[in-house]
Amino acid sequence: MVDKLANLNTEDMIGSAMSYVTEGIKSLPDTIITWVKDTVDGFAPGIVATAEAFYADHKALCLIIGICLLALIGFEGYKIFKSLLYVGGAAGLAYCGYAYVAPLVSKHLVGIVPEFISVDALIAVIFGLLAIVLVRCAYGLAIMLLGSVAGYFFGSSFIHGVIASFFSTLEFLQGDTAKYIIGAVFVPIFGILFLLVFKHAFLILSSFGGMIGASYLLKMLLVPVADETIKFAFILFGFALGVFTVVRQYKVESRSMEILF
Predict the structure, then answer these.
(1) Distance CA 261, CA 43 (A)
(2) pLDDT tens digits, 201-250
(3) Which of 125, 163, 214, 218 has the highest Cβ tally under 10 A?
């Protein structure tokens, strides 16, 4: 082993590194597609098979729609996220108001609210509007909350699983208490991390991810043959477009009132 390391020159190291990076770039789209399929099928079993059957019958249409959607993400990814944050926040808080708050306070509002107005629906609307106001006035707080939730799930699932597998003899680490503690540790870490870098990370990932994905689907539409060189060329083309779109997104966001967020 020592002799091999001694004989390994700089050119071999660079060549090996470049080969590793090239293979990684080539396999990236397939890896992402597989991960998305597994994730979606885990939440809604059978939906992937249904989608694949529809794709087989309407391949060109599906590819064109996918190209348009991914290109839109590449150009307007951060704006789309902010819009979804408003919609998702309003829907989520409205549901909480309807499911948890309304049963507690609706009986106290009988006679105050007109009969033709549903008290439960009114509370849901109020909570939904409150979420919109909170996102608008405290966007940084919303991002911190998003990061905190992500941190908890990351710590309680992935990190806890890794630690528990390394220290399998420690009974405490195998229980739910350790899972909750590890998840809680990552709550402030991810909350602060999201606050500081989320916008920049999302701008970059949405730009490059959207355009590389759109280019890959364009390759599947125009050149359906399995050629690794052509696939790699289209991915590089998408990367070049990603450089353009990330600069564009930064220019658009720099004209807004937001500095950090």
Answers:
(1) 31
(2) 888 989 998 999 899 899 988 888 777 888 888 889 999 999 999 988 88
(3) 214
Question: Residue 109 and residue 11: Cα distance in Å, rounded?
Answer: 77
Q: From residue 156, how far is each of 3, 146, 159 by CA, in Å?
A: 43, 16, 6
Q: What percentage of the chain reaches a pLDDT higher than 70?
A: 84
Burial, 19: exposed, middle or buried (Cβ in 10 Å; 0-12, 13-18, 19+)?
exposed
The alpha carbon dihedral of 140, 142, 148, 151 has a sign of: negative
139-177 burial, b for 16+ CB within 10 Å, e for fewer?
beebbbbbbbebbbebbbeebbeebbeeeeeeeebeeee
Contact in structure between 131 and 93 (CB atoms under 8 Å)? yes
Long-range CB contacts (within 8 A, 24+) of 84-93:
85/135, 85/142, 85/146, 86/131, 86/132, 86/135, 86/136, 89/131, 89/132, 89/134, 89/135, 89/142, 90/128, 90/129, 90/131, 90/132, 91/128, 92/131, 93/127, 93/128, 93/130, 93/131
User: CA-to-CA distance for 49 and 39, rounded, in angstroms?
Assistant: 13
Q: Token pair for residue 109? A: 């509002």
Residue 69 pLDDT > 90: yes
Record the pTM: 0.62
Q: Is the pLDDT of residue 260 over 50?
A: no
Name the residue among 241, 233, 242, 166 with its Cα closest to residue 207. 242
What is the pLDDT confidence band of residue 255, given thresholds at 50, 70 and 90?
low
